[in-house]
Every structure is written in C-alpha cells, then in structure tokens.
Amino acid sequence: MTQRNPEEIYSSRIEQYKSRIASIKRIEILLSLVKLALVVGFIAVFYLAALAYSSTHLIGLIAAAVFFIAIAIIHESYIKRRTFFQTLQTINEEEIRALKHEFPDYNSGGAFQDPDHAYSSDLDLFGERSVFHYINRTATGMGCRGLAAWLKNLPADKDSDPIKERQKAVLELSSKIDLRQNVQAHGKIVEDSLERLDAITDLIQEPVFILPKKGLILLFHIMPLITLSVIGLVIAGLPWPFLFLPLAASMGINRQTGKKLIRIYLMAMKNTRILRNYAQIIAEIEKAPFSSAVLAKIGESLRSDDKPASLCIQKLSSLVGYLELRRNPFFHPLFNTLFFWDLHWTYRLEKWKEKIAPHVPEWFDSIGRFEALSSMANLSFNNPTWVMPEITNNDFVFRAQNLGHLLIPDDQRVGNDIEMDGKDKIWIITGPNMSGKSTLLKTVGVNLLLAQAGAPVCAETCRLSPIRLYTNLKVSDSLDKSLSLFYAELQRLKMVIDGVVQHENVFFLLDEMLKGTNALDRQAGAIALLKQLAASQANGFVATHDLELTKLEEDFPEKIRNYHFDGYIEGDKLFFDYKLKKGKCESFNALILMRKMGIDV
User: Fold this and answer.
1) 419 SS3 class
2) Based on the domain organization, do 216 and 363 belong to the same domain?
3) Distances (CA, A) of 537 to 157, 390, 494
C-alpha cells in the first residue's frame, strides 16, 4: 500500500479551493453588475415618475426594489461561500507550514498553564511553541478546553478500553479530512474564545425572571395593542395628550425591568454569529456517518426530543440577534417603547431555555470532544509514520522503538528504544551536559500522555499500560508564594511520593534532584529518595550528573539499571549522537565548556 503524502494532499486541496474561489468571484462580479443595473433602472423610473406619474412607474419601482433585495440576498450567500472556501484554503496552507514545524495560527493554550500540575509545566505542555500549540486544531472554546483536559487528566485507572475506543475514533476521523476541516473552517470564520464561551454559558444558565410573572407577560402582550389603538384614535381626532398615557406606562415598565434586561443583553452581545457557527459545526457532525463507538455517541447526543441540536442552536442565534437591536440608537427606543422589544424577545429566549437549556452543556461538551479528537486525528494524518500505541492492562509495560519528541523536526530528531517490563524498574541516566538526558525525559513524558489521550506517538512501535505520570524536571523558586528553590522542589518530590502511595501504576521523571541545596545533602537526599522509590511499586527515569547514584544498581540489581548518553571531541568541538546506551557515563564535558567560555580551569 502506497503511503499517503500529506503535503501533496494539502497542495491539491489548495488548488481546488483556489479554483472554486475564482468561480465564485466571477459570479459576484456578475451579481454586482446586476445590482448596479437595478439601481440605475430604479433611478430612471423614479425620474420618469417625477415627470409624469402613472401606476406603471410604481410597479416598476417596486419590482426594481424587490429584485435588488433578492439579488443582494443571493450575493450575500456567495460572499459567505467564498469566505468559507478562503478559510479552508488558509487551513490547508497552515497545515503545509505545520509539516515544516512552523506553528499554526491556533490557540497555544497559555490559559491552561499550571506550575502546580503533576507534569504539564515540566513537559512544556501549554504556551507558545508548546505540545498543545503543535497539536491543537480546535476552533471553539469548547474544543480548546476539551483538548487541554484530555492532556492534563490521564485516565484514573488501569482500564485500557476507553483509550482504545478513543484511538478508534481518532483513526476514523484521520481519514475524514473534509469533515475535520469543515468544522475548523466554521469555527475560524468567527473569533471564538474562552471568554465568549463563558458569556454564552452564563446567558443560557441565567435564571429566568419573566416566565414566572404571568401578569407581566399579559401586560407586554396587551399594551402594544392599546398603544397602537390610541395612536389610531389620535390620528382620527382624539386629543394628542391621551397618547402620553400608554407611552408613559410602557416607559415605566421598561424602566422597571431595564437593569435585568441590560444584564442579559451584555451576555448576549456580539454572540449571534458565533452561535450561528456553532450550529453549522453541529450540523456538520450531525450529517456525518460514524462507525466508532465514541463518534457515534457524540452524534447521538446532538438531539433534543428528536429535534437536531443544530436547529435549536440556530434558533438561539436568532433570538440573540433580535436582542442586539439595542445597538441601534434609532430603532431600539422606538420599537422598545411601542412593542416592548426587549421583554418580548427575552421572554422568547426564556421559553427556549426552559425546553432546550438542559441539553446545551452536553452539546457543547460533544463539540469539545469532537474537536479534541479531530486535533489528534490531524496529528495522525500529518505523521503517517507514527504509530498508534498498543494499550495493555498488564501490571506495567513500556516498550517503544525509535521514540522521539514531536517538537523536534524530523531531520533533527534522534529516536531511542525503551524496554521496561514489570513494576519496580528505575533507570538512572547519566551523561555530559547537552547530551540528551533532559530531552529523553521530556520525550518519554510527552509520548506517555499522548498515548493515554488516545493520540498516536512519535515512534515506530509502542506498547504500554496506563500509568499516572509525575515529573520534577525544571522547578524554580516562587517569589509570589515565598518559596525557595529547594522547598519548591521538595513539594514536587512530595507529589511524586504521594502519587506512589495513592496509585498503583506510577511513572516518574526526575531531573537533577535537590538542586537547591549543597552537594553533600543533595547526594544523600537523592540516594535516600531513590531507595524509597525502589522499595515501592513505581517505575521511572532519573537523570543526574552524580555518578554516586549509579552505585545503587549494585544494591538493587533487579530494580535499578544504569543508562547513559555520551559525546566525543574533535578538535575544540563537542559532538553528541543522542543515543541511549547501557551502563553509566564515563566522560563529562563541564570543564571543556567552561574553558570555551574563557574560564581558566
């Protein structure tokens, strides 16, 4: 079977969209000319009517206006189609750049950074040029949160079935490029954000205040009829001061309910288009056939009493759109005084919420889960040589061939083999500066969490059992918490120890433990910690420059193994092969690097 070439596929799609956009632009030019002709015709008929009016002129003016509106509506639909195809073209152009390890224009996940998390900060999970930034293809606040949650919260138990089901969904979506990119395009056309999602959620969850007030409902339905009747009577000859009675009553009611209505408007403000695009995203998912259980469940969840969720959200978009008339300084005061515009549409909104609101959190969650799966499916599509790991319920296994870090470009990445079976296995990794120790720990950590999220891993083969991951790689002091480096690191190490006590399958990654204290205490403390970990059920990697720790292999031959990286010198230059080897390191380069910096040692 010929392996697909993602760049060729993206390039082909770009050309297809360019062709469609060009065709639409030609139609748009034609429609613009038709509108111009109708305007000229309208002016001509108006001029002739001014000279000598007849009913034919009136019919001509009405016909020109009607045709102009119809053509304008058609033109607007073509503009939307062009915008959609232009967005799809941009998406494919971004994917080509992503294949070259240029980070795409998606949320980098900075809002999810948490220095107290068990591993996310150490593994550069969130932020600019992070793991999340590289993977993320979500275009809504729900998707962004959903993907971040999957990466931050690994499965709580050893059951591999949920991971396997998610893998099936990722593989199925990987081949559905049209569906994935259509959902992306609908989301990217409007600038969604976590803040806007929160505003929409608050709007939907806002307690109703009109529905319980039957008298108020009756009043704002009857009062417009009374006001219009009085206006008619005034035109017929009733003294005009009588008009002030219904108008004053209307203004009083609006004033009484104004603060609450303004609050609702502020939550609804500028969200009409986003809700409309949510509806379009849901519609794309609704009409897609799925074979995997996870995706089928997402599709089934997008209904309310056999009514598609897309239509329900489209209805919400329309209701919110009517409330946005408040932004018009001329029509809003008039319509609100005569017809109780705000009360009327807020009442409609509350009736919608009464029936539909309980379903909305599940719908938004379904969008989030779909986009998270789509992001991982895109990762799989872009990297056809990567493997979907085999997940097993064994006590502990972690085997991988040519395991690499996804943030290192293909032409620079050096993979390593990992083979760790059974519990109580600790690898102590030594080596010179810049030889690859820290990178290996991050490589292992990132691939472990990707595997358990249901994503492919950067390896030729991979087999593992679910684990709880804890890291201590780059702890720093904290001025805002008044923590020294040493105490901050002790807190991280306590998290690892607590994890060992509380969870059966723990995997830890430790880099240069106890950096914030003197050499003797650091060595004694590190040895004591490793002995404690060796006596537990935990597995993990420890990177260190301290060769004294490698002697623990003699004390715990069944549990501790020494591995190392090394380098070599040619002339005055250092070179590394970044390949992991058995045994402890016998050469270090600190003095050489110091001499290169001009320090006399």
Assistant:
1) strand
2) yes
3) 15, 22, 16
Q: Any idea how long the chain is? A: 601
DSSP string, 357-384: GGGHHHHHHHHHHHHHHHHHHHHHHH-T
Reduced to 3 states (helix: H, G, I; strand: E, B; else coil), residue 574 is strand
Q: Tell me, what's the pLDDT at 1?
A: 42
- Helices 331-339 and 214-236 pack at an angle, to 10 degrees, of 100
Residues 399 and 342 in one domain: no
Burial 543-558 (b: 16+ CB within 10 A, else e): bbebeebbebbeebee
Burial of 279 (0-12, 13-18, 19+ CB in 10 A): buried
Do 252 and 178 contact (CB within 8 A), yes or no? no
Please give the C-alpha separations between residue 115 and each of 64, 119, 433, 509, in angstroms, as whole numbers. Answer: 65, 9, 25, 16
CB 487 within 8 A of CB 476: no
Residues 329 and 401 in one domain: no
Q: Which domain holds residue 227?
A: 189-371
Nearest to 464 by CA among 453, 451, 473: 451
pLDDT tens for each residue of 491-532: 888 888 888 877 668 899 998 887 767 778 778 888 888 888
Residue 385 tokens, joined? 């040589």
Pair 244, 308 in one domain = yes
pLDDT tens-digit map of 115-134:
889 899 999 999 999 999 99
Cα–Cα distance between 195 and 193 in angstroms, integer?
5
Q: How many domains does the chain have?
A: 3
Which pair of structure tokens corresponds to residue 172? 């199925």
398 and 353 housed in the same domain: no
**Two tokens at 121?**
């900060």
Q: Are 495 and 118 in contact (CB under 8 A)?
A: yes
Asked whether residue 404 is domain-assigned, the answer is yes
pLDDT mean over 521-545: 86
Out of 68, 99, 130, a domain closes at: 99
